[in-house]
Structures are given as structure tokens and as C-alpha cells.
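By convention, the C-alpha cell line describes the chain's fold. To illustrate:
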Amino acid sequence: MSRPVDALDATFPIAAAIALDLIRRPEVSEQWSSPSALPHLSVGGLACHLGRQAVRVAELLPTPNDLPVLESADNHYERAAWVTEGSPDEASVAEGPDEADAVRGPADLQARSAQALDEVVDLLSRRAAGAVVPIPWQGWALPRSEFLLTRQLEIVVHSDDLAVSIGVPTPEFPAEVFDPVRDLLVRLAVRRNGQSALISALSRSERARSISAF
């Protein structure tokens, strides 16, 4: 599937602002070094992973692309190795960027995330963002709307992870933010588990099984 290149220009900043509000909650700072709901990752590490989504977008939107371009976010997740590798082990998490960023503390994260959001809004409002956005760590690029959808999915999913980790309600995202993420997750879940698994999980509690998209 494809969508206009500017389809998510208005919705990503909304998602990132909601994530920033969650990151700023006092419970995040108070539980910074506590284990999160994700294996081997602290609350601080998880918060840094969530905040990094806006930072990545600010860095990559104006970056020229010389990588092969995939058509959609669906293609991105079909090819990304981490989707089928399962949860990272303790050593990988400890050596990764999330825990390294967490050492810098919550105030640093809040400042970086807020600055990145401002930069994203500025880039999009000035039409200074590229139509195609490279994803260097994967070796390919996506149309801007599809790239923003991958970051929007990360925000929606990890906002839930962080809220559960600190014992607060998961933020409610407006339909224009949530619906594209929901639809992508459904497509990925069907691809991974098949139509029958999805139908059973959504309509037959007596035979429902896991339909995780990842």
C-alpha cells in the first residue's frame, strides 16, 4: 500500500508531544533506575528509547538519501531482522544506546526530546523534510509518510510499555495518530499469524491465542 508523502506530517508531532508529556511525568524520574516492563531494560532506558523516536526523525528528515527505497512500512517490518530475532538478551540491552542514554538522566532526556520535537515541527512546516528518508541502520529508505508511520508505531507501542512500567494509565492517542498504527499492526499480525488467528483472537475468546505482530 502507499499513501501521500505528506500524509503523516500533521500526526507525528502530535504523537511525539504525547510521548514527551509521558516522559515528563514525575513517576518516570522517580523510577528511573527500576526495571521496566520490558526484559533487561530499566525505566530510564525505556524512556530514552521512546524519546529517541523524535530525535531520529529530527536527524533523518533533512538527510539526503542514497539507499534503496522500499514502498511501505509493511516492507520495512517484513525485512527488519529484529522482528524475527525475539527479545534481545541482557548483554545486548546493556551494551545498547538506551541504557547508555539513561546514564545522562531524565532532565537530559526531556531537553533532548523537546528540542527534537521543535526541530521536527520546524522542518515539516518549512517543507524542509525530504520526500524519502534514509534508515541507515537498516540499509534502506522509505517515503516520508511510511518512515513517520514506523516512528509513530514505536511511540504508540512504547508509550504503553512505559505507562505500564511506572503504573500510570496509557496515554490515549487521537484517532488520526492511532488508526494508522492500529491498521499496520493488524496487517503485520496477519502476516505473522494468519487470518484465522486474528479472527479467533478478536471474536472468539474461548479459542484465542497470541497474535503479536512482532
